[in-house]
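Example S7 (structure tokens).
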């Protein structure tokens, strides 16, 4: 079974008041949710709670900066901490200077073996970044850089 997962995506899980034997699988839980939702209007005993939790991540990332002036190099170390082989790993990075978006970039990494490490990197080139750099050279602004990354991957379980 192929699963597509992003490193910062949240998913919703179902928690019902039914016994554990009734709601063991997601399809069964969805069916239980549908039947409980119809009976919940008649009685208050059938309460349904929907919680949002993060799925387990199979990777760990660390962000490094290279040269960051009028163009900015973002390097990311991606570690596969699982025993699964990851396929089609991609990196999306968004650069912010002083909490203002200065540009974004992406990189295709490929596959990562179990317990292995791969490096991904991309360069942000934008007119906004060049303008911010010129303003910093003139002494008008600070140069607080921050990068937000999203690493998406597929795995077969």
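Recovered sequence:
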């Amino acid at each position: 079974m192929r699963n597509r997962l992003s490193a910062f995506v949240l998913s919703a899980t179902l928690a019902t008041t039914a016994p554990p034997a009734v709601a063991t699988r997601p399809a069964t839980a969805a069916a239980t949710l549908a039947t409980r939702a119809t009976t919940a209007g008649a009685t208050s005993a059938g309460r349904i709670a929907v919680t949002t939790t993060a799925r387990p991540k199979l990777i760990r990332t660390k962000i490094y900066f290279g040269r960051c002036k009028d163009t900015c190099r973002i390097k990311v170390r991606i570690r596969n901490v699982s025993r699964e082989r990851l396929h089609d790993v991609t990196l999306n990075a968004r650069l912010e200077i002083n909490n203002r978006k200065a540009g974004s970039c992406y990189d295709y990494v490929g596959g990562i073996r179990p317990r292995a490490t791969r490096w991904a990197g991309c360069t942000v080139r934008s007119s906004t970044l060049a303008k911010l750099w010129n303003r910093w050279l003139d002494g008008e602004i600070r140069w607080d850089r921050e990068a937000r990354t999203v690493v998406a991957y597929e795995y077969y379980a």
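Notes on this example. The chain has two helices and nine strands.
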